[in-house]
Amino acid sequence: MIQSPSNTTEKTQTVLDVARALHRQQPDWVTFFREVLGLEGLVRQAFLAPKELARFEQSPAGEEIQQMLKQLRESCTSGMKALDPTQMITVRLPRSLHNALREEAQERCTSLNKLCISKLLQAIDEQLVPNEGAVEIDGPFELIEDGEGL
């Protein structure tokens, strides 16, 4: 856990120092994500307020951490499953968006799955996310791990 520095500059530097140290150890990308950017990671421990978190994510330090994550993803091996089981989600999107994503993946010589994960890992300006108020779930989620239940 990060000792709570008093100002944003100190917090940013502390997070960046710890992220750099972890990156030098060359963990798998999932471990790096979990420890640095995950729900209980360094960034969320340091920047509790949503606006403060958003500012950090879009700062040069946040961008540097995204680059570290990208490097680890590029050197990723298939051993990730044993460390953190994968889960599947279904996303409904217009056919035109699906086609555009598929084309972009092909242009980038990557899979649609890897492209979508890359896009999901990026910080997004909260002003670009439609606010629908409180959302209730109509029914239970079905959790599908490692492709079981398909």
SSE arrangement:
Elements: H1 8-24, H2 29-37, H3 42-46, H4 50-57, H5 60-74, H6 80-83, E1 87-88, H7 95-107, H8 112-121, E2 144-145
Helix pairs in contact: 1-5, 2-5, 7-8
Characterize the structure shown.
- The chain is 54% helix and 3% strand.
- It has eight helices and two strands, in the order ααααααβααβ.
- A two-stranded antiparallel sheet has the order 1-2.
- Residues 143-150 have low confidence and may be disordered.
Question: Key features?
Answer:
two-stranded antiparallel sheet; 8 helices; 2 domains; mainly alpha; 54% helix; 150 residues
| Number of helices in the DSSP assignment | 8
Number of separate strands = 2
Summarize the main sheet: 2 strands, antiparallel
Radius of gyration: 17 Å
Alpha-carbon distance between the termini?
39 Å
What are the secondary-structure elements, in order, as H or E? Answer: HHHHHHEHHE
